[in-house]
Recover the amino acids of this structure.
């Protein structure tokens, strides 16, 4: 780090200089979603627990964690410095995507934040801003942060639990795909993986042009297609899941849950790879592995009955087949078994 930047960072007020109440007083106003909480949050931060509405009698629940140096770096090898805003946005995006993948709509979040004492207060304020901005910009306007917890630790850790509603409808599970269904994708795939490769490279962040910068932007601030989940449910999707760990690995999960084979169209895969060409050219690599094994775009992989019109945002990328004799569920490419690859938290 340049000396002048190091000195500016060192002079920033840190959380060690504030009490828990003082820090919460910096955070809460930034989470009020333009002045008020949404209708689903009946009682927000300030008491021992929040109160949220569940008008349909059910709550869809998901939880996810980001840990410093496991899920993000404060300083990447290419010189990009992760902001609190980035981490807050990503925490919102990845949790909203899980609710989306059930065909549901998010209603409220609670956040647990663990911080080292030398964390700048401005970084924490940025995280709160990123949470609020992510919720709003991604279109989860019926959702707000209802409360959370603060603690001290050796590295930054952000855990978000999100609640959602099905508004009286059915959930779309991974287990409903049927032979003859169309396999379709909403959102991007491989973009976040290309962004990660650029962040981990020696190519300085400030030298990237607009065509390349989009990839690290989507790694740090994913844009899940939140309109697509409820739209898929309304259109009759038979199965669906969030693509967080790679198209092949998550396709395998859908296939296993439904006891089918999913067959990817190589022409569609080639098109998806071509969208990553600017990053691949810069890094002198093949973009195909990013499409097949790259996670964290948080698009949706879904199956639909053959012959129906796919909802807006979805593109057909393959088909669903019955299992043959002595054949287990899995992912095929043009009829041939594919190595599932992808991200595994305990293998990386």
């Amino acid at each position: 780090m340049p000396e002048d930047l190091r000195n500016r960072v060192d002079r920033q007020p840190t959380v060690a200089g504030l009490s828990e109440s003082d820090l919460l007083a910096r955070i809460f106003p930034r989470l009020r979603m333009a002045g008020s909480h949404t209708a689903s949050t009946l009682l927000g931060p300030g008491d021992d627990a929040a109160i949220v509405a569940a008008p349909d009698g059910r709550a869809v629940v998901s939880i996810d964690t980001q840990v410093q140096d496991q899920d993000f770096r404060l300083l990447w090898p290419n010189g990009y410095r992760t902001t609190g805003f980035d981490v807050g946005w990503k925490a919102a995006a990845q949790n909203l995507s899980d609710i989306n993948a059930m065909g549901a709509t998010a209603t409220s979040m609670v956040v647990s934040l663990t911080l080292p004492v030398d964390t700048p207060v401005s970084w924490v304020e940025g995280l709160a801003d990123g949470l609020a901005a992510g919720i709003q910009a991604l279109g989860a306007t019926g959702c707000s942060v209802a409360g959370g917890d603060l603690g001290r630790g050796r590295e930054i850790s952000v855990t978000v639990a999100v609640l959602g509603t099905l508004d009286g409808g059915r959930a779309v599970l991974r287990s409903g795909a049927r032979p003859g269904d169309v396999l379709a994708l909403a959102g991007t795939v491989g973009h976040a993986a290309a962004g990660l490769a650029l962040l981990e490279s020696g190519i300085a962040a400030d030298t990237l042009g607009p065509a390349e910068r989009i990839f690290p932007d989507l790694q740090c601030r994913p844009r899940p297609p939140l309109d697509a989940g409820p739209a898929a449910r309304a259109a009759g999707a038979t199965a669906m899941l969030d693509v967080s760990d790679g198209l092949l690995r998550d396709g395998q999960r859908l296939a296993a849950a439904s006891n089918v084979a999913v067959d990817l169209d190589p022409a569609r895969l080639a098109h998806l790879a071509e969208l990553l060409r600017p990053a691949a050219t810069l890094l002198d690599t093949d973009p195909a592995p990013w499409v097949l094994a790259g996670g964290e775009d948080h698009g949706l992989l879904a199956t639909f009955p053959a012959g129906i019109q796919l909802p807006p945002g979805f593109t057909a990328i393959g088909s669903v087949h019955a299992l043959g004799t002595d054949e287990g569920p899995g992912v095929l490419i043009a009829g041939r078994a594919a190595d599932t690859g992808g991200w595994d938290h305990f293998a990386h």
Q: What stands out?
A: The longest strand covers residues 105-115. The mean pLDDT is 91. The longest helix spans residues 84-100.
